[in-house]
Amino acid sequence: MKRLTLIAFAAALSACASMAPQYERPAAPIGQDWPEGPAASAAAAAPAGADAAATAGADMPWREFVADDRLERLIDVALGHNRDLRIAALNIERARALYQIQDAGRFPTIDASGSGNHQRVPADLSMSGQAATTHTYGATIGIASYELDLFGRVRSLRDAALEQYFATGEARRSVAISLIAEVSRAWVALAADQARLELVRETLANREAAHKLVARSHELGVASALDLRQSQTTVESARADLARFERLLAQDRNMLALLVGAPVPAELLPGPDLDQVVAVTRLAAGLPSEVLQRRPDIAQAERLLRAANADIGAARAAFYPSIGLTAGIGTASSELSGLFDGGSGTWNFVPTIRLPIFDGGRNRALLEVAEVDRDIAIARYEQSIQAAFREVADALVQQGTINDEIAAQTALLEATTEANRLADLRFRQGVDSYLAVLDAQRSLYAAQQGLIELRAARSANLVTLYRALGGGWSAADETAGTSIPAGLESSAANRR
User: Fold this and answer.
1) Residue-level pLDDT at 484
2) Average model confidence (pLDDT) across the chain
3) Are 301 and 384 in contact (CB under 8 A)?
4) For 87-117, what is each residue's pLDDT tens digit?
């Protein structure tokens, strides 16, 4: 027992060393502020909450961000049934099990065994010249194999597995946020195509009525055959658009069902209203550093960087000696009844040391691979920061200009509506040909389509900006996620 206690003490001492390089977070390869200019939103330059008219997107739970009850219920279904999110959750469980496998290396493997050996020796081999049968019974408990982690190889492998486990948790949060955004954008696209379909139906009805009037005028000799054919082209063009938007609407529903992971009930489908999707009209970005702290994809990249850093420690430790221990205590007897009698005790203690002398450059190559993997992880971390910066900056630029575009498009629609009325009136009075009416109808239809597109773009941009700011991640985690155990997080923080 004293020897086993000594071994346990040596195991505790072996956990104190690590050859992993000291981790330092790389400097963010971006500016301290969002880009400014005529197209940039004023919210980009102000910290979150500084503008009373703007809402801090990073601090708003998604249930408060989503305004439509049907969309909120649909997102709830998606968080429970989406297969990508389910895979991400299973990846967490897998990474947790892998970490537990590596963590088990810190402790010796203790096994208990019992054995019985029965052997007959023939007379010509026996010392007594007579055949003999021997019986041996034994019971042993001890350490089957244990590596003293003097240079931190086991610890580095464990730390790498732990960081990879944390990275899968961040990946799952990222998938949840992206899923909320994708469902919202698919909802907006479906609502926009629904609005376009209603517009096409209304346009087709108006053009069919106008075509009947032109056909009647042609019969009376007032309108020419060219006017009749031009009127017919507008009708057929509207019919083609009707078929196209019916197809797009069906595809939008299929996409929504794929994202949700289940059939979408009709009562949860949107109508043509594009202004009631989200509860805010403006989102404040705050400072870039705040976004870096909240976006889970950046946190995931940093976790993987920490894991690569720990792998370097394991590769370095391979250059140094490794000490393994095998030990056990037990009893042995020729009689089963005397197995635990006094004087039957046995023990064994087998320390081994392995010193690498020549491996053909294998350990050096493994260290080089670990260092290159670390450099790749740094590049990916910096790339994720730059991508996040660009996503937010692009969304802010669109937020800063979209309302002006909608105002201009609304004015254009009013002008083309009046122009269409006047062109139709002049044709009825015989002042102009039907060509002027045809041009006015096309301009009006394009202006109506453009306004629907811009209104949809405004709602979709708010969703994109909300996701890019990392908004709603805690709510997504509470709704459909398995949080990382606080004990593991605190233990990792202590080691760092």
Assistant:
1) 41
2) 82
3) yes
4) 988 889 989 898 888 888 888 888 888 888 8
- Report CA 477 to chain centroid distance, whole Å: 12
How far is the CA of 165 from the CAs of 82, 92, 153, 372, in angstroms? 21, 6, 19, 21
pLDDT tier at 474, thresholds 50, 70, 90: low
The two tokens of residue 246 are 């019916």
Number of C-beta neighbours around residue 331 at 10 A: 18
Where residue 452 falls among pLDDT bands split at 50, 70, 90? Answer: very high
Domain assignment present for 270: yes
The answer to whether position 113 is within a domain reads no
**Backbone φ/ψ region at 286: left (φ over 0), alpha (ψ -120 to 50), beta:** left
**CATH number of domain containing 86:** 1.20.1600.10
Q: Amino acid identity, residue 187?
A: W
Q: Which residues pair with 147 in a beta bridge?
A: 324
Q: Is residue 237 scored above 70 in pLDDT? A: yes
Q: Work out the number of other CB atoms within 10 angstroms of the CB of residue 435.
A: 13
* pLDDT attached to residue 106: 80
Between CA 155 and CA 157 the distance in angstroms is: 5
Q: Classify residue 116: in a domain, yes or no.
A: no
pTM: 0.80
Q: Which domain holds residue 378?
A: 22-107+152-320+361-495
The domain tally of the chain equals: 1
**Residue 67 within a domain:** yes
pLDDT of residue 353: 87
Structure tokens at 461: 């941009």
Question: H-helix or E-strand containing 400?
Answer: helix 362-428
Please check whether residue 88 is in contact with residue 171, taking contact to mean a CB–CB distance below 8 angstroms. yes
Any idea of the CA torsion for 484, 490, 492, 496, to the nearest 10 degrees?
Answer: 140
